[in-house]
Design goal:
Number of helices: 11
Order of helices and strands: HHEEHHHHHEEHEEEEEHHEH
Radius of gyration: 28 Å
Structural class: alpha+beta
Shape: elongated
Distance between the termini: 25 Å
Helix content: 40-55%
Strand content: 15-25%
């Protein structure tokens, strides 16, 4: 079985930085808000006292400082739990604070003794460095995104099972014409890119229902999905055979298009739903339902379509559907590989 790193080096480093910032902020904030006078007199602890040399005690300002630190701590915790772009957002907020806060304290080092001066610089520098790490992108230039490890072992976690069932419910809803079930598997802002449709989820479900109402039905035979999970994001690939029964010159035929369905999935407020659906087309075939029948498809008509989905596109085109020409397919390996790179970059962003 092929596995994937559960988190790249950047994701692990981000978590360490977020934990550090959260602990500092929640500890300092709770202390300053709940016991402002004690905090003022003995911060940062360990027998040291850094605040009295900077000015007289003010309960209002002390409690406001505590509230501010608690807010920054909450942001760090949220970023730690939800992932996505939040670590970078938290890093930006912390960086603004640390630059302004640290800049002031560096101008006031003269009020301290040598030991306190060194400790101030170390503490301020550590917090600023953690902020910078969160803001800086994980990969740049020619760095490659994390890819599956050939000998890794991907465990079947509860979340993986949930995601697999989510994808199967989406396809089941599509094939069985259970439209509310199908719609419930997508986030409203999701995107879909297939032969006959490119757009958002509401349009995809509505278009599928309209297609079925016109008698254009298909069945999807699915292989077991492979799920790559990273925090609140996941990407799954499912090999699929798209089966359509139709006629060619009054000859009943079974058309089968082979593709790999790629699902980006996100967890929001504890719920997993599909964020995007893309297809990578491989090839398609057509065979007569009755042995001995010979369907005839003009070669010049097939030539108008990409070889990885020519038969499916030809069928849909004659049924009145507009077929995309820029879809992913094995006949365009550079675009296909760029998609995989994009997926794994997104997964570990």
């Amino acid at each position: 079985m092929t596995g994937i790193r559960p988190a790249g080096p950047k994701a692990t480093t981000d978590r360490v930085c977020l934990v550090l910032l959260a602990l500092v902020a929640l500890g300092t904030g709770g202390w300053a808000y709940l016991a402002p006078a004690r905090w003022y007199g003995s911060f940062p602890g360990f027998g040291l006292s850094w605040l009295p040399p900077l000015g007289p005690y003010n309960e209002h300002l002390a409690k406001d400082t505590g509230a501010m630190f608690l807010a920054l701590g909450a942001l760090a915790v949220l970023a730690l739990l939800r992932g996505g772009v939040l670590p970078r957002v938290a890093g930006a907020a912390w960086l603004v604070f640390n630059v302004l806060h640290g800049g002031y304290h560096l101008t006031m080092l003269h009020v301290y003794g040598p030991l306190d001066q060194v400790l101030n610089v170390v503490a301020l520098g550590l917090l600023a460095a953690a902020s910078v790490v969160l803001v800086v992108p994980g990969r740049s230039g020619g760095d490659q995104p994390p890819r599956p490890e050939p000998n890794g072992e991907a465990g079947m976690s509860d979340e993986t099972t949930t995601i697999v069932q989510l994808l199967l419910r989406e396809r089941q809803g599509r094939d069985r014409e259970w439209w509310p079930q199908m719609a419930a598997t997508f986030w409203p802002d999701s995107q879909v890119n297939l032969t006959w449709y490119t757009g958002d989820e509401p349009g995809f479900v509505a278009g599928s229902e309209e297609m079925s109402g016109r008698g254009d039905r298909s069945v999807h035979r699915l292989a077991p999905p492979v799920v790559h999970l990273a925090g609140a994001r996941a990407w799954a690939e499912v090999s699929a055979a798209i089966e359509v029964r139709t006629t060619v010159d009054e000859v009943p035929v079974d058309l089968t298009s082979y593709a790999r369905l790629g699902y980006r999935v996100e967890r929001r407020d504890g719920e997993w739903r599909i964020f995007s659906l893309d297809a990578i087309y491989e090839r398609d075939t057509v065979a007569p339902v009755l042995p001995g029948s010979v369907p005839s498809i003009p070669a010049e008509e097939l030539a108008a379509f990409r070889p990885t989905y020519a038969l499916l596109a030809w069928h849909l085109d004659r049924r009145g559907y507009r077929i995309g020409t820029g879809l992913l397919g094995d006949d365009r390996p550079a675009e296909r590989d760029a998609y995989y790179d994009q997926v794994f970059n997104w997964l570990h962003a």
